[in-house]
């Protein structure tokens, strides 16, 4: 639980999982990381944060840029 809200690893739209995994892989490759969506139970939280933080940050940045472009193009 974080900030009174339960966090979930499931996408809001289950049908989008495959597309989200593809985007994660593309962005990880873009910043020089090898993304593996397999089991990570043996990896420390520090390492997971080190790997996942930049990928999540880049995903957010790209989504915001795409949304802003869409707003401008309207």
How would you describe this protein?
It is a single chain. The chain has 74 residues and is mainly α. The protein has one domain (14-73). It has two helices and no strands. Helix 1 (17-30) crosses helix 2 (45-73). The mean pLDDT is 80. It is globular, with a radius of gyration of 14 Å.
Summarize the helices and strands and which ones pair or pack.
Blueprint: H1 17-30, H2 45-73
Helix pairs in contact: 1-2
Task: For this entry, give a set of tags.
about 70 residues, mainly alpha, about 60% helix, globular
Which value, in Å, is the CA radius of gyration?
A: 14 Å
Structural class of the secondary elements?
Answer: mainly alpha
The tally of domains stands at: 1
Element pattern in H and E:
HH
E-strand count = 0
Put simply, the count of helices is 2
- What is the helix fraction of residues, given as a range? 55-70%
User: How many angstroms separate the termini?
Assistant: 38 Å
Low-confidence stretches are none
The biggest beta sheet is recorded as:
none
Quote the average pLDDT: 80
In percent, how much strand structure appears in the residues? under 5%
The shape, in one word, is globular
């Amino acid at each position: 639980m974080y900030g009174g809200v339960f966090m979930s690893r499931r996408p809001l739209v289950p049908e989008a999982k495959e597309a989200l995994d593809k985007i994660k892989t593309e962005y990880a490759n873009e910043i020089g990381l090898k993304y593996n969506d397999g089991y990570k139970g043996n990896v420390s939280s520090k390492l997971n944060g080190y790997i996942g933080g930049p990928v999540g940050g880049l995903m957010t940045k790209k989504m915001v840029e795409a949304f802003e472009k869409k707003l401008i193009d309207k």
